[in-house]
TrEMBL record:
Name of the protein in its database record: Chromate transport protein ChrA
Membrane topology qualifier: Multi-pass membrane protein
Lineage: Bacteria, Pseudomonadati, Pseudomonadota, Alphaproteobacteria, Hyphomicrobiales
Family named by the database record: Belongs to the chromate ion transporter (CHR) (TC 2.A.51) family.
Record's keyword terms, sorted: Cell membrane, Membrane, Transmembrane, Transmembrane helix
Major localization listed first in the record, in broad terms: membrane
């Protein structure tokens, strides 16, 4: 990586709990989930404002992050839309797009595992080997309330075929009640 690469874990832009807060905010708004990147841009600029006021830097960071996230997508859609039908018949391009789709699914799975580990366990240990590293949970740091809610949601959805909205409502209420009882809210 280049010397200008800034790893959020190295520079402490966000803690895992704050990333979960950003995901929670993105999930509660009627917009695209990728808006969590705006939160990351805001927090990163707030924590490293340079010579600017932290709130001004954070606002500019959030706006810039949103701009660079969505502008290329819209340009691609508006400029490329007339050519999409013609490109569908191209076998090499279809194979490339299938590969990109597989990579996106892998990224989503990686993100789901990351969030799951940070929700269910208070402590993770990084284990490195063979040129890669994996976060391994410390089993004694399990968040029992989160584990019970997760298992309950899985059973409700997969065993009893309960719909998403009732499961979300029940888990939200149970999580709120658990936080109030434990004093963490």
């Amino acid at each position: 990586m280049s010397g200008n690469y800034r790893n959020p874990q190295t520079y402490h832009w966000l803690q895992p709990g704050e990333m979960l807060d950003g995901l929670g905010m993105a999930e509660t708004t009627p917009g695209p989930l990728i808006m969590v990147t705006q939160f990351v841009g805001f927090m990163g600029a707030f924590r490293a404002p340079g010579s600017l006021d932290p709130l001004l830097a954070a606002t500019l960071g959030g706006l810039l992050t949103t701009w660079v996230t969505f502008t290329p997508c819209f340009l691609w859609i508006f400029l490329g839309a007339p050519f999409v039908e013609a490109l569908r018949s191209n076998r090499a391009l279809s194979a490339a797009l299938a590969t990109i789709t597989a990579a996106v699914v892998g990224v989503i799975l990686n993100l789901a595992v990351w969030f799951g580990l940070h929700v269910l366990f208070g402590e993770l240990i990084e284990v490195s080997g063979f040129g890669m590293s994996v976060d391994v949970p410390v089993l004694s740091s399990v968040n029992v309330a989160s584990l019970v809610l997760t298992l309950g949601a899985l059973i409700a959805v997969f065993r009893f075929k309960v719909g998403m909205l009732p499961v979300l409502a029940a888990c939200s209420g149970a999580g709120l009640l658990s936080g109030l009882v434990s004093g963490t809210l």
